[in-house]
Amino acid sequence: MKKIVLFVSFAVAGALNFVTLTALADGNTLEEAVTAARQFRQTHEFEILSEFRDLLRFPNNARNIDDMRENAAFIRSIMEARGIKSELLEIEGAPPAIYGELRQPEAEITLMIYIHYDGQPTDLSRWKSDPFEPVVRAGRLEDGAEVIDFDSLRGRAIDPDWRIYGRSTSDDKAPIMAVLAALDALAAANMAPSVHLKIFLDGEEERGSPHLDATIRKYKDKLESDFWLFLDGPQDQRGNARVVLGVRGITGFELTVYGPASGLHSGHYGNFSPNPIDRLVRLMASMRDANGRVLIEGFYDQVEPLDAATMKLIEAIPNADAEIMRKIQVAGRESPGQRYEETILWPALNFRGIRSGGVGAQGRNIIEPSATAAIGIRMVPDQTLEAVRAVVEAHIRDQGYHIVYEEPDVETRLEHEKIALLDWRGAGYPAVRTSPENPLAQRVIALMQAMTNNQTLIYPILGGSLPLAHITNNLDVPLVLVPMANQDNNQHAPNENIRIGHLWRGIEIYAGLLAAFDAD
Q1: Three-state DSSP class for 53?
Q2: Which residues have C-beta within 8 Å of that of residue 286, sequence separation ≥ 6?
Q3: Cys bridge to 95: 26, 203, 384, 510, which one at CB 3.0-4.6 A?
């Protein structure tokens, strides 16, 4: 690893602040790389947004492979236009992953960038505008910001507080555009990435990347690299840039319990027939307490206490609990005594939904035949899927339930008083975390602090989940996340958006990282 030397800090008005690093291999400084990105963006804003709009127009639900192939064809075309050699990585029954490579003759480090190009499904009835006909608004929709005619942006000063609304604007097509624009900027300034650059674009991350493990195994030689940089997710709630050293893992299941074989009149059979809604809520209540503490015996057996180094990282992040509570509009909270950044370092069991009967106009005086809950589990490092599932099933059995994995037949219903159908939804994946002492992680942190006047926040782990374990298990490679989206981007929700200033900032950050990652 090459030595990093930090000099005096200074501010760049209206953009990133950064500390000067040693000169890059080609004689340019980090300052010059970021400045080149800013100057290129300032003279090509309309062209950048136009290409971004073209990318956003492709529907990208991973379940529709034909749509995903159209996305992939367009993305490959704009990659190839930048000289990035690309190909599709195919696994039967899955949308293709897109692989790109831009080699540099003098580079000593191979950097892999991960972005996903699929998006969450959309419910058109809940969107203010067509999710695949992106629009620019003069601010936040929630504040009544009006739509701005896109063609009127040509030659016009674009306010960084304006926003683009559409599916995948922030999650996760914005980083694709930011990286490509960063490469354009470096090329225009006769600069080059300091690394052998590889790009991996996942086509089904929003489905949990069920084929990622198989893809990596099949194309392992092609995907070998020294470091993976993930560009997914939002920046900090305070608006600070952040480097995230890992993600929680995830698994989940649907739990169905049973009552009578068909709906029964509650007047005739109430107090006699078991009520599955009652059974379900009692079973769910046995799994966690009012503060979110999981009550399942053995659930925390693999969880290590937070060490001093991790607590030091947390303490270095300004406390924003009160502001977070104000934004989500709650007066109380779970996990009392722990600040937000500490809560996401512990595993969680979350109730995602309940289905049985009806309310309001759909309410009926019957005892339902069954009740179903969707339950999600966020895991932390050292927890394994097998151990978590084993203790969950043991707990359900301890509550008197006979577990089945398909609809029970008549004999089973008559033999067992309590029956629970479990459907573990997909494979899931464990948590991943890179040590802050890793020299390449330290390199990213140093560059980010240099570009932000030491305002980048270092998070031990992300509260959400990404399928990073498939990568670390197969490739044994360190990785970190450098998100770029605004926190209030409506990720996964209707009216998803990206603040244009965050897109501009992303271009500058990624240009700096690419230009200086392997600098002398």
Answers
A1: helix
A2: 295, 395, 399
A3: 203
Region 248-303+346-424: CATH code = 3.30.70.360
DSSP secondary structure letter of residue 429: B
Nearest to 384 by CA among 429, 433, 348: 429
CB 228 within 8 A of CB 112: yes
Alpha helices in 294-438 (DSSP H): 308-315, 321-328, 340-343, 385-398, 410-415
CATH number given to 9-245+434-516: 3.40.630.10
Per-residue pLDDT of 42-58, as tens digits, reads 999 999 999 999 999 99
Burial of 222 (0-12, 13-18, 19+ CB in 10 A): middle
Peptide bond into 172 cis (omega under 30): yes
The boundaries of every CATH 3.30.70.360 domain in the chain are 248-303+346-424
Query: Residues spanned by CATH 3.40.630.10 within the chain?
Result: 9-245+434-516
The chain-wide mean pLDDT, for the chain, equals 92
Strand ranges inside 123-278, DSSP E: 135-137, 147-148, 163-165, 196-202, 227-230, 242-244, 246-258, 264-265
Helix (H) and strand (E) counts for the chain?
A: 16, 23
Closest CA to 446 of 13, 18, 15: 18
**Structure token pair of residue 164:** 């683009």
Who contacts 431 (Cβ-Cβ below 8 Å, separation ≥6)? 246, 247, 248, 249, 379, 380, 381, 382, 383, 461, 465, 469
Element (H, E) at 280: helix 276-285
How many residues in total does the chain contain? Answer: 520
pLDDT tens figures, 469-488 = 999 999 999 999 999 999 99
